[in-house]
Amino acid sequence: MSDTKTATAGQSLLPTYGRYPIALVKGEGSYLWDDQGKRYLDFMSGIAVTNLGHAPQKVKEALIKQLDELWHTSNLFRIPNQEEAAQLITENSSGDAVFFCNSGAEANEAAIKLARRYQQKIANNGRYEIITFEQSFHGRTLATLTATGQEKVKEGFAPLPEGFKYIPFNDIRAVEAAISDKTAAIMLELVQAEGGIIAADPQFVKDLKALCEAQGILLIIDEIQTGIGRTGKLFAHEHYGVEPDIFTLAKGLGSGFPVGATVAKEKLREAFGPGSHGSTFGGTPIATAAVKATLEQIVEEKLSERAAAAGEYLTAELRSKLADLPFVQGVRGLGLLVGIVCAGPVADIVTAAQERGLLVITAGPNVVRLLPNLLVTNEEMDTAVAILAELLAQA
Predict the structure, then answer these.
(1) What is the CATH number of domain 57-300?
(2) Annotated catalytic residue within 43, 100, 133, 137
(3) Per-domain residue ranges for the chain?
(4) Looking at the whole model, is its pTM more than 0.90?
(5) % of the chain beyond a pLDDT of 90
(6) At residue 72, does pLDDT exceed 80?
(7) 222 is a catalytic site residue
(8) H or E element at residue 369
(9) 137 is catalytic
(10) How many CA atoms lie within 13 A of 366 on its CB side?
(11) 4-8, 111-115, 137-141, 168-172: segment of lowest average pLDDT
């Protein structure tokens, strides 16, 4: 290498992230440590990923065991871990068949492809259009950023794939007006996390499901951030009493190991026959060892129920401690997906919290998002609330 081509390690990365000047090097439970030895209370969970906390023992043991045995083969062969992980998902959900991939964006991409292929190859109606909602977020691949109802993620990527419509969230009349003979599916998050922690109205979801059933439209629910116990149920759609035709998972599914899944009803199985879709690294022995261990602990220890109780406690404490602060407009969310809605931008509050040893994240410019792990203690929540109350009072 020539003397002119030298760079720091950080400069060797494409600048796709606005990074904080913190290098985190160790994690355990609800805490992280940086390379200077400073400890942080983690209320981000890697953006709803480390739902069991950092380095959970059961998952760690499963990964170590698998690393000693087999890392990778190919999906041209049976992968017992993959089959068992899929069975865990179907036994604990309304889904019947699972496709494993590497991320949430890939899971949503597969859901879009599955919906179109079902309509065109099985239902034989030629439908391809997907209706999504304003302020939604579905991923960064070309199709999933097109499905996303936020213009900021699309800038500079034209031309975008055709076949997507965007309508206001929680507006059933807008859905009815958008449906045409081309409509293959409707795709939504039941809590718009990136969009500001906005939950779907229960009557809207009920009406949406009825509309889909009446018109042969598939209902896709994006559970990337809301799944795996985060909202107080294993999957958020359980709160609403609906069974989607397709739902997608990632983030907390592997406790930090990269893995995603697309889960479908039985009638869609035939649409994804051999050769229709695939992934080199989807559902490897290592990835599905993490999935199995994660789901087993959440189900066996009833951690979804624990998250529901913790979410009630956290929300109540926030509302009590922040009630008299003029900068705070409200607290909303579901389970341990919680947002503090503020009267102005909150980026400086996030940075100030880091200085105080608390990690939180935004959800849009004016919302502080809290995502503690499902095993968070009342003491840890009290600490976070106290720090945020002080910072928000100063705002």
Answers:
(1) 3.40.640.10
(2) 137
(3) 10-55+302-394, 57-300
(4) yes
(5) 97
(6) yes
(7) yes
(8) strand 367-370
(9) yes
(10) 11
(11) 4-8
**How are beta strands 129-133 and 183-188 bridged, if at all?**
parallel
Residue 169 annotated to the active site: no
> Which of the residues 165, 251, 292, 321 is marked catalytic?
251
Q: How does pLDDT run across 25-59, given as a tens digit for each residue?
A: 999 999 999 999 999 999 999 999 999 999 999 99
The closest of 128, 150, 133, 124 to 190, measured between CA atoms, is 133
Catalytic residue among 42, 169, 209, 222: 222
pLDDT in tens, 79-100: 999 999 999 999 999 999 999 9
**Helix then strand then coil, % of the chain, to nearest 5:** 40, 20, 40
Contact 219, 184 (CB under 8 A): no
For strand 191-192 and strand 198-199, is the pairing parallel, antiparallel, or unpaired? antiparallel
Angle between helices 303-322 and 378-394 in degrees, nearest 10? 30
Could you tell me if 130 and 163 are in contact, meaning their C-beta atoms sit under 8 angstroms apart? yes
Provide the pLDDT for residue 345: 97
Say yes or no: do domains 10-55+302-394 and 57-300 share a fold.
Answer: no
What would the DSSP string read from start to end of 129-182? EEEEETT----SSHHHHHHSS-GGGTTT-PSPPS-EEEE-TT-HHHHHHH--TT
Cα–Cα distance between 94 and 263 in angstroms, integer?
Answer: 9
Q: Are 27 and 55 in contact (CB under 8 A)?
A: yes
Range 10-55+302-394 classified under CATH 3.40.50.620: no
- Edge-to-edge strands, sheet with 24-28: 24-28, 31-34, 39-42, 358-359
Tokens of 384: 């976070």
Q: CA 53: distance to chain centroid?
A: 16
Tell me the residue length of the chain. 395
Cite the DSSP H helix spans in the chain. Answer: 45-48, 57-67, 80-91, 104-117, 142-147, 172-178, 202-215, 237-240, 285-300, 303-322, 347-355, 378-394
